[in-house]
Each structure stands twice: as structure tokens, then as C-alpha cells.
UniProtKB/TrEMBL annotation:
PROSITE patterns on file: HTH_MARR_2
Originating species: Derxia gummosa DSM 723
UniProt domain HTH marR-type: residue ranges: 1-152
An annotated Gene Ontology molecular function: DNA-binding transcription factor activity
Name of the featured protein: MarR family winged helix-turn-helix transcriptional regulator
Pfam families on file: MarR (PF01047)
Biological process terms in GO annotation: response to stress
InterPro entries, per database record: HTH_MarR-typ (IPR000835), MarR/SlyA-like (IPR039422), WH-like_DNA-bd_sf (IPR036388), WH_DNA-bd_sf (IPR036390)
């Protein structure tokens, strides 16, 4: 489906393009500030963003293969593999070979990983409270739906 004239205005090719009207400008700024805030908060409990991301994915989904974690984390397999083995060495996750395929490494949370999740959640709660201040449930649901649709448009679903 060809873009409408309104959509063309929001692309960098438009003659009247303004960065402040480009959604990816705001997404990039938001991501940058979010990353800085998260790094600062997680450091207080001895964690980092990759640890937070992987442990939270496992908390929600349970036992996953490294490949499945990679899909949820939207990251590269070597990066996730290296991080998972660091987390295993730190006692935060356990790894085992899948019963259905001995080549597949499955990852699960340990009690230490669950305990760190609780500390990370407490350390980062203020960030989420501030980020969503003044937004209604309906606004957040619409934002999620829009972002999900855009991700699908880019083949990320």
C-alpha cells in the first residue's frame, strides 16, 4: 500500500521534514534516556541492562532456549549466548540440554536469579512510575498497539 501524503511528511525524504515530528526521533531519545536511567538504577544492585532483560524474559516465559531468548531480547545470538553463560557462572541462571534436541541449550532461573529480579524491580520501579505518569491505561494500550503494528510492518513479529 503506497504511503499517504501525510505519512510522507514524516519521513526524512520529505521537503518539509522536521526531526521533532519524526516518531523515530522520539523513540531514539526515549530509548537513550531510558537506557541511561536503567543503567544508573541497575548499577545500585550490581546488575546491568542485559542481565535485566534476560532475567525478566525468563521470569515471564519460564525455561527458554538461548535462541528463544534472542528473539524476545531482539539481540544477536552470540551476544545473548555470552551473557547467558556469564549469568550461569554468576549463579543467576541454570543451563541444560533440551531433551528433544541435545544441541539446544535451555535456560532457567535459579533462586539467586529470582532474588536479583526482586532487587532490580525495586531499583527500577521509580523509572517506570515517572515514565508513565499522567498516562491513562487506554493511552498505554494504544501506544503498545501502535508500536506492535510498526514492528510488524518492519517484519519484527
Amino acid at each position: 500500500m503506497p504511503p499517504t501524503s501525510k505519512q510522507i511528511r514524516y519521513t526524512p525524504l520529505a521537503a518539509d521534514f522536521k526531526a521533532e515530528e519524526f516518531p523515530f526521533y522520539w523513540l531514539a531519545r526515549l530509548h537513550g534516556v531510558y537506557t541511561l536511567e536503567m543503567e544508573r538504577a541497575l548499577k545500585t544492585v550490581g546488575a546491568d541492562i542485559p542481565t535485566f532483560r534476560i532475567l525478566m524474559i525468563l521470569k515471564q516465559h519460564g525455561v527458554l532456549s538461548i535462541s528463544e531468548i534472542t528473539l524476545h531480547a531482539v539481540s544477536k545470538l552470540p551476544t545473548i549466548t555470552k551473557t547467558v553463560y556469564r549469568l550461569r557462572d554468576d549463579g543467576l541462571v541454570a543451563t541444560s540440554y533440551a531433551a528433544h534436541d541435545g544441541r539446544v541449550v535451555e535456560v532457567s532461573l535459579t533462586d539467586a536469579g529470582l532474588a536479583l529480579i526482586e532487587r532490580m524491580q525495586l531499583a527500577t520501579n521509580d523509572i517506570f512510575q515517572r515514565a508513565f505518569a499522567g498516562l491513562t491505561d487506554n493511552q498505554i494500550e494504544r501506544l503498545n498497539a501502535t508500536l506492535r503494528e510498526m514492528l510488524g510492518n518492519l517484519g519484527g513479529l
